[in-house]
Design goal:
Shape: elongated
CATH superfamily of the largest domain: P-loop containing nucleotide triphosphate hydrolases
Helix content: 40-55%
CATH class of the largest domain: Alpha Beta
Strand order of the largest sheet: 2-3-4-1-5
CATH topology of the largest domain: Rossmann fold
Strand content: 5-15%
Order of helices and strands: HEHHEHEHEHEHEHHEHHHHHHHH
Number of helices: 17
CATH architecture of the largest domain: 3-Layer(aba) Sandwich
Number of domains: 3
Length: 344
């Protein structure tokens, strides 16, 4: 039995235990990042029972506000039919009213049942007793929203598992333009994998991303960030002009979010004990190689200017939402003014 608390269980160890057939009677999978919750659920669905036993011994319950918790308990208390286990998967458990009532089952779970509670869009907050009880007899796995800083590692590891490498520029193009939705990121990476030739030496390039995903290798958020990091006034204005004339390329809100993340990191870096790559990486909880852009930005923008830029980004965000926006001020005007302020 895999008894692990939410403070120690990780995705890799959890998947390893399941594949090794070390099953817990109850799994609580919860958090804002649905990708890992879905992957653990899929692993349990495909591992516990052979195909010929699933028809009678594997059940999925999709929760709505009308779902009765007693139905879940009654199904969990059934004995398997000609099988060692039965699997009961409760999806969208965040919709379940009186989820705390599952405590009566969790306190005395049936050893032959593998109960999976998939709770997305946040953690279970209604009942700490339920979470504590599950941690004692089974597994509580938390899947928080991922930070932008971990995306490059996610991309490279995902592709490495398929014997594919990727250029740094291509990695950053995906990071900046797709963002922290791991399910969408995985979907886009799967599209790229389909287009690659079979055999060794496969590598994802910016050209392939431009061709297959529709992100321009010259005019994208990563290139804008790079231009601003290096204070390349001409390139930055060229890119923002492209965005303004092609509204479907990159939305202004996406530009502001990406720039805010950049300068927020830079602001935090100014408070690092030392201005070395190692110290900044530890302070920001990122890899050392990821500090290169932060350090370069610090060389071009003082702490005071960085603070002013963050304030201007917030102001521009409000203007895009219609707050304190002049009657004749377009979104394109807001973005041009923002880029001018940052670079001068």
């Amino acid at each position: 039995m895999a008894k692990q608390s939410s403070s120690t269980v990780t995705y890799s160890t959890l998947i390893s235990d399941i594949r090794s057939r070390k099953f817990a009677p109850v799994y609580l999978l919860m958090g804002e990042e649905s990708y890992y919750i879905d992957k653990v659920t899929e692993c349990i669905e495909s591992t516990v029972l052979p195909e010929e036993e699933k028809a009678f011994n594997q059940m999925t319950i999709y929760c709505t506000r009308e779902t009765d918790y007693r139905d879940i308990i009654n199904n969990a208390r059934r004995y398997p039919m000609m099988s060692e286990h039965q699997v009961v998967i409760v999806k969208e458990a965040q919709n379940l009213q009186k989820i705390e009532e599952l405590l009566t089952y969790v306190q005395n779970p049936l050893p032959s049942t593998v109960l999976v509670i998939s709770h997305k869009n946040g953690n279970v907050t209604k009942s700490k007793k339920l979470v504590t009880a599950i941690a004692k007899v089974g597994v509580v796995f938390e899947s928080p929203k991922v930070k932008t800083g971990v995306l490059p590692s996610f991309i490279t590891e995902y592709l490495k598992a398929h014997n594919v490498s990727i250029d740094r520029q291509a990695t950053m193009m995906l990071t900046e333009n797709i963002g922290t939705d791991l399910s969408r990121m995985a979907s886009e990476l799967d599209k790229l994998l389909i287009t690659l030739p079979e055999g060794g030496g496969r590598n994802v390039t910016p050209e392939q991303i431009e061709r297959n995903i529709g992100i321009s290798k010259e005019f994208n958020q990563w290139e804008l960030n790079t231009a601003i990091i290096n204070k390349d006034v001409y390139k930055a204005n060229q890119i923002i002009a492209y965005f303004n004339s092609n509204p479907k390329s990159v939305a202004p809100q996406v530009v502001i979010a990406a720039l805010f993340n950049l300068f927020a990191q830079v602001m935090q870096a100014y408070y690092a004990p030392q201005r070395t790559a190692e110290s900044i990486a530890q302070h920001l909880e990122i890899q050392s190689w990821q500090t290169r852009d932060v350090i370069t930005t610090m060389q071009h923008y003082s702490g005071m200017k960085t603070m002013q830029i963050i304030g201007k980004l917030r102001e521009a965000d409000l203007q895009l939402k219609g707050v304190n926006k002049g009657a004749n001020l377009s979104n394109a005007d807001i973005m041009k003014e923002l880029i001018y302020f940052i670079l001068h």
